[in-house]
């Protein structure tokens, strides 16, 4: 299997809006057989027939023909149109993706896409790499087929836009958000992603579906000289980044999806004991109190010695005068 060319440009992630928390979303009915586990919300609108829960388990919240389900349906319809219109795209020569290793981009096949065996999606070391597949009609996977993620690729950034129905074969291991008109997951198929259909039904059979979460990627900038202004990006499509002044010798680490940078200081440390600068320093301008006390003691001793000497000389003079008077 081969592609006619390499992807010509980076794909843009599809914004699911109000549908982002829904692991399963349908327009008419949702029918489950067996102990399916849905790790995410279930939504159904305008239909109201939810069958097989229990024994199926919804670890999220179920919305049946309410305002949230309707908003999610409208959002997934918009997302479907966006995914279908993404350009430029690479044309898939054969409809079967089995055996291919694909780099990020948009892949288009005018008819039905299929998967027999394994397809590898390689992000090339970029956790924000996006893969979009456009199927003119159906998407069908053979039993035990797999989608493998490599090179930092994440399930949250994989999208399958399907012109009609999507069918995941028995024990298929699949990733990404499936945007279709109807969908069937056969026995034991697992999906790290979402299955969201517009007007049709979703049929489940002992499946596991988990809404994917994008892992944050860290961008680190080390500032080495002078006062530098560092700008940290905010969450994509929500809030702008923040700008601040960072002192020299500071490392700023920003997690994508968060506008709160984590800052650690790595600049030169001031040694302890340095005069007037380091912690614990004792040298300073002026005289130490102990030195002043010593000088005072020396001065006092000198003064006392001088007084004693003058007193002794005065007594000697008085004694000599007394002896002279007696001899007369």
Explain how this protein is built.
This protein has about 325 residues and is of the alpha/beta class. About 20% of the residues lie in helices and about 35% in strands. It contains 2 helices and 27 strands. Strands 1, 3, 4, 6, 7, 8, 10, 13, 16, 18, 20 and 22 form a 12-stranded parallel sheet that branches. Strand 26 and strand 27 (about 260-265) form a beta hairpin. About 30% of the residues are buried.
Question: Keywords for this structure?
Answer:
328 residues, alpha/beta, 2 domains, 12-stranded parallel beta sheet, 7-stranded parallel beta sheet, 2 helices, globular
Q: Mind describing the biggest β-sheet?
A: 12 strands, parallel
Using only C-alpha atoms, the radius of gyration works out to 40 Å
Number of helices: 2
Q: What fraction, in percent, of the residue positions are helical? A: 10-25%
Summarize the model shown.
By secondary structure, the protein is α/β, with parallel strands linked by helices. It has helices at residues 67-85, 289-327, and strands at residues 22-26, 29-33, 37-39, 41-44, 49-51, 57-58, 62-64, 90-91, 101-102, 105-109, 113-115, 118-122, 131-135, 139-141, 146-150, 158-162, 165-168, 173-180, 182-185, 190-197, 202-205, 208-210, 218-223, 228-232, 242-246, 250-255, 262-265.
Secondary structure layout:
Blueprint (H helix, E strand, L loop, with lengths): L21 E5 L2 E5 L3 E3 L1 E4 L4 E3 L5 E2 L3 E3 L2 H19 L4 E2 L9 E2 L2 E5 L3 E3 L2 E5 L8 E5 L3 E3 L4 E5 L7 E5 L2 E4 L4 E8 L1 E4 L4 E8 L4 E4 L2 E3 L7 E6 L4 E5 L9 E5 L3 E6 L6 E4 L23 H39 L1
